[in-house]
Design a protein that fits this description.
Low-confidence stretches of chain B: 87-142
Mean pLDDT of chain B: 69
Structural class of chain A: mainly alpha
Shape of chain B: flat
Distance between the termini of chain B: 61 Å
Number of helices of chain A: 9
Helix content of chain B: 25-40%
Largest sheet of chain B: 7 strands, mixed
Helix content of chain A: over 70%
Oligomer: heterodimer
Number of strands of chain B: 11
Shape of chain A: flat
Order of helices and strands of chain A: HHHHHHHHH
Radius of gyration of chain B: 23 Å
Low-confidence stretches of chain A: 105-130, 206-213
């Protein structure tokens, strides 16, 4: 399968229309699902938005990102690093979708994470349920920022170390890195997460209720 | 005492695991994007007919069909062609800069290729004026549009009147409840095409204008989508209805449109028969459909 993908990728990057079409058929579902997850999580902010068009535009944007600069991102995939092409593309798709939605100026979704808005209210005087919801929203915002900022390699390490909780030696073997490099990456991930969280907490709350469209 | 940074990473990992959990409720919807079974798709569409939240998920995860994939292929080939190194260009420098950018935090001004192109045309969106969408230039070939079959609806697939043949009496029509998403897309034959669209609905032998806003893509495709209610289709009331679309140069479209277009007309027309039903009726049909699927 991976060998087939390597060959298909080479042909597609050589602008062979039939290969591009086959690759689109192979990758559209995984890109669609990852982009859809990001959109579904922002559903509350999406009222009135043309969702179908948004999905299609984001999927196309992911394809554009994959193929621009002569397919630089796709050429970063290697079939001997334990990550299938669809999973590799899925990581990029989610990152790209978050990036686009978070960074889009005057976005009807959320110009900035909802967490800081809620947190500002919660820090006022309302403990309990609202505060818990704010903590959850803050975590969501930190995770989204992490995914948006990390390279595919960084995301892969986050998955292996944190989600799958594999030990350092195993991750080192899977990624062809030294254990020391893995430890360094783990520390880097933790510092980055803290910096993002602190940055979100420091963001000023919007001055007017209903300011986010 | 545990390290606070580790606690934060652990909490993030828990959240990411929860998002990706096999039993997460969204997995059912996600399967739709990858091609769910007809029964499963029918069940999800029935749910969407009675639940606005499910309707939004249906909009997100309904499969991207042939028209979308063709657009992706066109976009990829354009991207590859645009980035092809010139004979005297220094592609290696670009690649090195790109590699650096990939490990750095993402810029906050991500403007994709598609949106740049759209902005160059007419700012991405075209506002509707009364019953007609006005575009900027005449279409070079008024016969170059095709109606996408991905209209949506419940029950049998949508087929245009032309596809079914003249005079054919459909036994069953695709049906739409007020919250059912509907998507009308006129695919341009060539990127240079630009045209106006006028929509109407025929009910009980009378054709009435249907004011509806179409969006134009960078490729010239014209799309209107939303729920039946949001698009104003529900105001034509429940029953069998024919959606009529006319596309052509703005000054060629008559005030009153119908299908088929008169011989020699400088515009194209499309007609689709649908049935509009109440939410409770859609629910009843979905339940009947599920029962009959189970009994098979």
């Amino acid at each position: 399968m991976n060998t087939d993908d390597t060959h298909l990728l080479e042909r597609a990057l050589a602008s062979e229309p039939q290969a591009v079409r086959m690759l689109v058929d192979r990758l559209t579902p995984v890109i669609h699902v990852r982009v859809g997850r990001v959109l579904a999580r922002r559903q509350a902010g999406a009222l009135g938005r043309d969702l179908r068009q948004e999905v299609e535009d984001l999927v196309q944007e992911v394809f554009t990102a994959l193929f621009e600069r002569q397919g630089r991102l796709l050429r970063g995939w290697s079939n001997d690093k334990g990550l299938s092409l669809p999973n590799y593309v899925g990581l990029i798709a989610e990152r790209r979708a978050i990036n686009v939605l978070v960074s889009r100026k005057k976005s009807p979704w959320t110009e900035r994470p909802m967490a800081a808005d809620d947190l500002g209210r919660a820090l006022g005087s309302t403990p309990g349920h609202e505060a818990r919801a704010s903590e959850s929203d803050l975590l969501r915002a930190v995770l989204d920022r992490m995914k948006a900022e990390l390279s595919p390699h960084g995301l892969r390490l986050f998955e292996l170390l944190m989600l799958e909780q594999r030990d350092v030696a195993e991750v080192a073997a899977a990624t062809d890195m030294t254990p020391a490099a893995i430890y360094a990456w783990r520390s880097r991930l933790a510092k980055r997460a803290r910096a993002i969280r602190d940055g979100l907490l420091a963001e000023p709350a919007p001055s007017a209720v209903g300011g986010s469209r | 005492m545990s390290d606070p940074d580790d606690d934060l990473l652990d909490a993030l990992a828990d959240l990411a695991r929860s998002d990706a959990a096999p039993d997460h409720p969204d997995r059912r919807w996600e399967a739709l994007a990858d091609g769910a079974s007809p029964n499963e798709e029918a069940a999800l569409r029935a749910r969407a007919a009675r639940d606005p939240d499910a309707a939004r998920r249906l909009e997100i995860f309904a499969p991207l069909g042939e028209a979308s994939r063709a657009r992706f292929v066109d976009g990829i080939l354009s991207t590859l062609a645009a980035d092809a190194p010139s004979p005297s260009g220094d592609a290696s420098g670009d690649a090195a800069r790109a590699a650096d950018a990939d490990t750095a935090p993402a810029p906050d001004n991500v403007v994709p290729f598609v949106r740049r192109r759209a902005a160059l045309i007419i700012g991405g969106l075209v506002a509707a004026a009364a019953a007609v969408l006005i575009a900027t230039t005449l279409t070079p070939d008024p016969q170059s549009y095709a109606l996408s079959p991905e209209i949506g609806g419940l029950g049998p697939p949508v087929r245009t009147v032309a596809d079914r043949g003249p005079g054919a009496q459909p036994e069953r029509l695709p049906y739409f409840a007020p919250s059912t998403p509907i998507r009308l897309r006129l695919r341009a034959g060539s990127p240079g095409d630009r045209a106006a669209v006028r929509a109407a609905v025929r009910a009980d032998g009378v054709t009435r204008p249907w004011p509806i806003e179409f969006h134009v893509s960078a490729e010239g495709h014209l799309t209107a989508q939303g729920s039946v209610e949001a698009l104003g289709l529900w105001r034509f009331g429940p029953g069998r209805r024919t959606i009529v679309l006319a596309v052509g140069p703005p000054d060629a479209l008559p005030e009153q449109i119908d299908h088929p277009a008169p011989p020699g007309a400088d515009w194209q027309s499309f007609a689709v028969d649908v049935e509009l039903v109440s939410a409770s009726e859609a629910q009843r049909r979905a339940a009947d459909s599920a029962d009959s699927a189970e009994s098979r």
